[in-house]
Amino acid sequence: MANLPVNKAAHPFDKARFEAVLNRRFFYAPAFEIYGGVAGLYDYGPPGSSLQSNIISEWRKHFIVEEHMLEVDTTIMTPAPVFETSGHVARFADWMVKDLKNGEVLRADHLVKNVLEARLAGDKEARGLAAQPVKEDDKKKKKKDKAKPTAVKLSDEQVVEYETILAQLDNYSGPELGELCKKYNIRNPDTDNEVSEPVQFNLMFASSIGPTGQHPGFLRPETAQGHFLNFSRLLEFNNGRVPFASAQIGRSFRNEISPRAGLLRVREFTMAEIEHYVDPEDKKHERFAEVRDVELDLLDRDTQAAGSTKLTRMKIGDAVDKGIVANETLGYFLARIHQFLIKIGINPTRLRFRQHMGNEMAHYATDCWDAEIQNSYGWTECVGCADRAAYDLTVHMAKTGHPLVVRQALKEPIITEKLVAEFNKKNFGKTFGKDSAVIQTIIGGMDEALLAKLQGELAQGSATITSSDGREFKLTPDLLTIEKKTFKQSVREFTPNVIEPSFGLGRILYVLLEHSFWSREQDVERGVLSLPAVVAPTKVLIVPLSAKAEFDPLVREVSSKLRKAGIFSRVDDSNTSIGKRYARNDELGTPYGLTLDFASVQNRTMTLRERDTTGQLIGEIDEVIAAVTELVNGTIDWAEACRRLPAYDGVQAVE
Amino acid sequence: MANLPVNKAAHPFDKARFEAVLNRRFFYAPAFEIYGGVAGLYDYGPPGSSLQSNIISEWRKHFIVEEHMLEVDTTIMTPAPVFETSGHVARFADWMVKDLKNGEVLRADHLVKNVLEARLAGDKEARGLAAQPVKEDDKKKKKKDKAKPTAVKLSDEQVVEYETILAQLDNYSGPELGELCKKYNIRNPDTDNEVSEPVQFNLMFASSIGPTGQHPGFLRPETAQGHFLNFSRLLEFNNGRVPFASAQIGRSFRNEISPRAGLLRVREFTMAEIEHYVDPEDKKHERFAEVRDVELDLLDRDTQAAGSTKLTRMKIGDAVDKGIVANETLGYFLARIHQFLIKIGINPTRLRFRQHMGNEMAHYATDCWDAEIQNSYGWTECVGCADRAAYDLTVHMAKTGHPLVVRQALKEPIITEKLVAEFNKKNFGKTFGKDSAVIQTIIGGMDEALLAKLQGELAQGSATITSSDGREFKLTPDLLTIEKKTFKQSVREFTPNVIEPSFGLGRILYVLLEHSFWSREQDVERGVLSLPAVVAPTKVLIVPLSAKAEFDPLVREVSSKLRKAGIFSRVDDSNTSIGKRYARNDELGTPYGLTLDFASVQNRTMTLRERDTTGQLIGEIDEVIAAVTELVNGTIDWAEACRRLPAYDGVQAVE
Questions:
Q1: Which domains does chain A have, with CATH numbers?
Q2: What is the ipTM of this complex?
């Protein structure tokens, strides 16, 4: 079924109404609201929780079940040595600046972005170009960190300079951001005070484990390390073979400097992460052919470096062939991420894949693409897909000594021949005494060519070698022999590389809600959330015309038949009009409604309402249940349902 | 289907083998194992994660879906003021003692328990009674905190004294535990050193929120506060009506003093909590009749106070009628908890409900019962079911001023008549000047009887009242009138009470594994986990006889048909014998196996193997899929499957 049968383009997105609906229907709300709240912490209410758990369930099917991934569930609390080794203690940080007078703390890159964007908007206004929407938007949101645009015209060179800086913003280091602030006189927009030099702030929440505080610990900022530390167990579980993937869904924490974009930048969030382990010499993917023709909108590194954000639409197969995407496995996951996001209802025209620039990449990554989704805050990273190479497994192995490697039996053992020196220890000791070890070390360090030369000289009677301190030693055939030996290697040992798709579920949930929201022309006050049935919190609403007892047996029958068909339904027998009950469920994203009225009791008929069109059909109870079951399971669409069941024309009378 | 078709009683529980299986099959393992681990933190591997997620999924169906609970998902990180109000900062603590010489920290109640139990065991040994198992057990486990029993005979009085203390152990306060240590010379069993007075240690992990450390915070030790803070939103979502329940599944954290019992005492754990809000004046439950006849093994407060642990088997209906269980709602949940635990495979003969004693109860509870499950560590609390009364909502409302109350329209308004004094302000001021306020306050504070007396005196001309400093004032009818007035109350406002069933999912998972484990007589080295299909990590194993390509289409066909039937299967095409593959899956708890051999390719037949009996049936592929689908869904049992399909007698040949 098409996700959006209604042309939503005709209904411009109204953020204030949207936020009012999410709040009124308790999709989510600031945590500890009655205590005044804390920035960056949100609670999900019943529809938000259901939506999240349906997204997770679909994610499990799409990735874990489909690809036989090994699921793990590891702890959030992590002892400090793990993150010291992984590099997070030293480098998992953002640059922040302080307002030099009032001490307010700001994220340096956000400050530069906001001020330069405001100046560009002010310039447009001064030039009499479409600056109006910016101002209005700004007024409505009253976002504290938004610099107010004032109508000041910039030089044409300045405009180009600012635009280039903004296109490359993610690529600046902290000191470079500091220089930008000085060069362009960037100040705290709230106070117009100067700001300090940028300093690093580590984003991990710290705590300590145990009653005597003996174990410093951190809350994980990603689930990944929990996978890596269990690598050798997982490999054994997979019978020692790569490639395979582990997967984990769970909470992570980042102590953001000043989180302000609702669910898009929070201090506690649910992630879903895959760590796919591959042979570094073979990053092909056996199912790549299945996705080769999937088309993606790409924004690669070079385009950004040239100061542009122009998208290139391309088949993933071509992108890999051309080397734009580094390898098949990375490409396979980009396509699968795309398919997943479309399936749950993300608007494909507002989805792009952006490659990280050099300085932007996390310390562990060698290549990285973000699935970015456009929404009212701009383009937001919702999924990262990084090639972490062998970084993590290598550092943990070096630190702990535990072998985090794959041992692979070679089909054909590798046979090599090498010259080897064998010493006559007795004669050697007699001749050189305590210098023996020095001489043997020198010979042990010789490459094939030097050994061949030595072998030749010995065949002619004697050879002379010189130690690093300049002493010369004469070697004769009674002291050593140099001969070809055959070596057979039957096992190859390697540290696998890791491709990591990492999903921020809260961000996906939020942009999905934005993409699904619109209002009916005839009733703009009431919102509709056109969530696909697969993720909708409730699939079917059962609406008895009145709370009269004579409806009870029918309500129970319909509920129970839906439950048997595996369809999650709810009954709304509240004491309001049917129209109000439907309107409430349009805001909750419930795709189908079943109405039981007095005709149902007499004739065993029932009406079926579709949320987006508000079209209604009528039929015998079991027929309607069969149709709605197929609609929810996606095996028929609404057009097909309309062919099966007659239209019900009592719509206006009821609503 | 009977959970355990095999008589497991014939196979004594072998803990060493059990632990080896859990470790070998990566059900779970110490977190950060390659870094040496940290006590009380565990990671779940693939079968553990699946088992946990199946338990959660069944929990959702049994509680949330069945009772239309409102699911929420709230943050773990919590600002300090919330837990200051809830009482956790002051009181969520355990008593710990320090070894006075080496500084080792011990939990006071555990120390007393271990030392006294060891002395009782030593006494039994000295008397020549069954002390042997204790010693052996002790040796095998090498648990650091287990005091070693030595064969010292105690007096009969001492034995009774120790046993009484142990039966009431949970009821001692910290100072009382300190007195017990002194009185009975209880020392650190590892060092024989004396220990300090018990001091309180708060079990919450502390952190701070934001870049300047301005918001101290804690990791939640339970999910409950997240429900309560959202109460008014949830109530509104439920159209303002009680009773209703919120539910949440999520991580919580407790910084245990010295966790040592595997998954039974951990520092980070997944809980499932229900907060059921009821009218304090009506704790009946509308579905109580459905569970009235469920029989539970109860251990009430009075029995424990009398120093006994004898169980009473009783219908929950009778227990509520007799006042042993405080009310229907509490009783309803005890029965539903019982049903849930049995359904997922807990052995009902090892499940009891123990009532908390007075001092043991959490600071917020008015009555509390624990579902305790017997396992190799003893009886372990796995579910708590507390009546928290109005405690939490009341304190948060008092602190924040936000109304956490239910406003209920009364069917019949309550009409009351009261005497009310009305003052003639002008005359009053003229007569009494600045004393007016004092006099009016005195009259305003009068109860109905005093007002009636005053009314009578005024009717006779005048009255005299005396202020607290002894001055007398004369009142006359021109100054005030006292008359009956009618008051109408049409809304009742109240703070609901909360009944809280709270599940420790890791504990349930662990005891379920213990209850499910046994070994076959013919092969004691190999374990079997008789997990019910409903929670088994994998339901069906597909075993192609060899990895030959000719099996591929059949394997794909069977996998795909099972997936369509909603059955989670795995293929094991590893390069080992079928017997070994089945043995591996017996240890993973996979209830059914489907074998594809050369006959399958020729005749389209397939064999079906049942894990516990190792019985095998044979049939046409679609017949076998139909049978295994019904077996997994629980609509037929193995006996019925044996009636439908002929036995396969090639068992020995294949295995």
A1: 13-85+204-326+382-394+497-508 (3.30.930.10), 93-202 (3.30.40.230), 412-493 (3.30.720), 538-654 (3.40.50.800)
A2: 0.85
